[in-house]
From TrEMBL:
UniProt source species: Citrus sinensis (Sweet orange)
Protein name per UniProt: Inositol transporter 4
Source superkingdom: Eukaryota
Amino acid sequence: MAVAGAIFGAGFGGWINDRFGRKISLLGADVLFFIGAIIMAIAPQPWVIILGRIFVGLGVGMASMTAPLYISEASPAKIRGALVSANGFLITGGQFLAYLINLAFTKAPGTWRWMLGVAGLPAVVQFGLMMMLPESPRWLYRQNKVDEARAILEKIYPADQVEEEVNLLKQSVENEKAEEGLIGKDMISRLKGAFGNKIQFVGINTVMYYSPTIVQFAGFASKSTALALSLVTSGLNALGSIVSMAFVDKYGRRRLMIVSMFGLSSCLVALAVSTDTLCSDEHRTYFISGCPSSFGWLAVVFLGAYIITYSPGMGTAPWIVNSEIYPLRYRGVGGGIAAVSNWTSNLIVSLTFLTLTEALGSAGTFLLFAGFSLLGLVAIYLLVPETKGLAFEEVEKMLETGFKPSAFMKKSNKSEMHA
C-alpha cells in the first residue's frame, strides 16, 4: 500500500511542483511522512496501519520526484550529478539505518510501534531544515520572481558566471512561454504537450525487494540470519551510492547505466543458476527449513553483486537524467510521469515476486528479470543521451532534434560533432 500510495503521490506531486514550487512539495511530503508514521505507531487495528502506509506512500511519491529535481535546479552543472547522487546515498544509507533500528527494537517493549513511529523523527528534522533553504531559482524565474532567482544564483555560481546563467534562463523561459501560448496552460494540454514534445526520454529503475526471502532460498532458514545478511546487502547498496557520487560527473550517466544494466543481467542469470541447484525438494518449505546446500553462499554472493552493480548505475543515474532532460515548462509533470511509471513497476514487482517464484521457480523468476534487464539495456543504448556537465538549456537544444547513439549517426554528423 505504501508503493501504491507513492504512485498517486508522484502523480499529483508533479502538479504541485509546477503550481506551488519544489520547496512546498518537499515540505508537504514531510507532513505526509509524519502523519503516516504517527498513525502506524498508534494503530489499534491492522487496517489503521494500512491507512498510515498510504500516507507514507504519498510522501514517498512526492519526495522521490521532487528531491532530485530541486537538487539539480539548485546545483552548478559540473557537480550536479554528484549532488543528486548524494540524495541516492542518503536514501540507501537510510535503508541501512532502518535495518539497524529494526534490529534494535526487536527486544524493546512496543517493538513494531517504535519501528514504524520513529520514522516521523527524520520528517520533522527535514521539515525544519527545509524551511531554511531557498526555492528553486528556475521555478522562481518562471514565476517572474527574477530578483529572488538572481539572489539565489549569486550564492550558487561565481560572480563572473551569474549573468550568463541569468541570460540563459531568461532565453529559455521566454521560448517556453511562447510555446505555452500555443499549447495551453491546463493540465490536459500540458500532458499532451509533454508526450508530443520532440524530447525523447526513458525511465528505468529496478529495486530488489525480498532480500531476506532470497537469502532463505539460498538455504538460510533462520529469520535472524536472513535479516543479518540482508543488512549486508543494504550496506552494499549504500556503498554503491558513494561510487556513483564519485564517478557520475566524471564518466557520465549513460555509461554508468549501460555498465550497470549489463552487470544486473549477468547477476540475475547467475542467481537463477545458483538458486536452481539449491531447492530440489519441491515439498520443502524454504522459509521454515531452508534449502541446505554447501553452495548456498553463492546465491548470497550473487545477490550482493547484484546490489553493488545496481546501486551506482540504475539506482541513481536514472533519477539524475530524469531531473535534467525536461524543458522547464514540463519539468514537474514530466518528472511526475516518470516517477509514477517507476512506482507502478515497483508495485508490480512487489505484488508478483512470491507468486512468480511459486509458478516459475526462483530460477525462472530471476531469468524473467534478466530478460527485462536486457531490454532495458537496449532501451538505454538507443534512447538515453549523455547529459554530463551540460546546462539545462544545452540539454534541451541537444534533444530538440532527437537523440541517436553514435553507431547510428551519419558520418557527416559525427564529423560535425568532432569539429
